[in-house]
Design brief:
mainly alpha, 3 helices, 82% helix, 0% strand
Length: 45
C-alpha cells in the first residue's frame, strides 16, 4: 500500500491537471483510422 501511495504522491499534480485541463487524443486517432480506411479502399480497387 505504501508503494501505491508514493506513486500517487509523485504524479499528484499530473492527475489533477488531467481533470482540470481535459485533453484527449481521440480526434487524432479518428484521423488515423480514416487514413487507414482510405488506404484499404485503394488496395481493393
Amino acid at each position: 500500500m505504501t508503494k501505491a501511495r508514493r506513486t500517487i504522491q509523485k504524479v499528484y499534480i499530473e492527475i489533477l491537471n488531467n481533470f482540470k485541463y481535459v485533453s484527449s487524443n481521440v480526434p487524432i486517432e479518428g484521423m488515423k483510422n480514416k487514413i487507414k480506411v482510405i488506404k484499404r479502399m485503394g488496395r481493393l480497387s
